[in-house]
Amino acid sequence: MRELREISMYPLFKKNMKLPFLLWAFLVRTAWLINHQSQQETKFDVEQRIHSVLDQIIQNQNDNILIVSHGAFMMMMSKELLRRGFKGKKITRPKMENYISLKKNKYITIL
């Protein structure tokens, strides 16, 4: 599913400027959170993408489901699953581990 792709981050500056990675990551993530014009995909867009993916999965769920995705997207997806009544721990810092949610005797696992 293409919708499970990572949240796209775009440069803040038009110049070919080199920044330390952690500074770049902080600036770009902050720009995304405040809907800065440099970011082509807004937080609302990502939330809509998550709603669409989860609606499709839950509507067609006949058995356990495994979702493989990326860090920030997984964090937002886990928040939405909890909001929808799934049980499990919230992903606050993605690691190479799984997240298991349970609802009506069926599992959704996010890796």
UniProtKB/TrEMBL annotation:
It holds the Pfam family His_Phos_1. It comes from the Bacteria. This is Phosphoglycerate mutase.
